[in-house]
Design goal:
- The protein has an 8-stranded antiparallel β-barrel with strand order 1-2-3-4-5-6-7-8.
- Helices cover about 10% and strands about 50% of the residues.
- It has 1 helix and 8 strands.
- The protein is mainly beta.
- The protein starts with a helix and ends with a strand.
Length: about 140
């Protein structure tokens, strides 16, 4: 037979765990997105994209090139935003020759501000993508 006093230590342990101070959540500053980034798909790399982002999040310049030929193939014009919880959202106009298509990136920035990883959607297809900050 179990007494109610035998349950008390477990109850106290659960209450103590519930009242513990939660670990600090990652915090990012919106201007942390500024800088030069190199991005590519994580599965099949068919383009590398360089984007230079201003503090306002606007893409100052960009170029996407084929890693085998090193020939420029496209540009990404748009804006990148960074939320305090390190969520990254970007909307672009992907331009390749006469073809223009809206593109979106959704992901997370690492707490050290050096990498962004998420999903890039272009031409209706979604693929895993990452960006790595380049040193100034």
């Amino acid at each position: 037979m179990t007494s109610r006093f035998a349950v008390a230590p477990l109850t106290l342990a659960l209450l103590a765990a519930a009242s513990a101070v939660p670990a600090a959540a990652a915090s990012c500053k919106p201007e942390s997105v500024a800088g030069l980034w190199v991005g590519h798909a994580t599965v099949q790399v068919d383009l590398y994209c360089l984007i230079d982002v201003k503090k306002s999040g606007v893409v100052a310049q960009s170029s996407c090139f084929n890693p085998k030929t090193l020939k420029p193939e496209a540009t990404l014009d748009g804006k990148v935003t960074l939320e305090k919880d390190c969520t990254v959202k970007a909307t672009f106009q992907f331009k390749s020759g006469k073809v223009t298509d809206p593109a979106k990136f959704r992901g997370k920035m690492t707490s050290d501000g050096q990498k962004m990883a998420g999903d890039f959607v272009i031409f209706g297809a979604q693929e895993a993508y990452r960006f790595i900050r380049q040193l100034d």
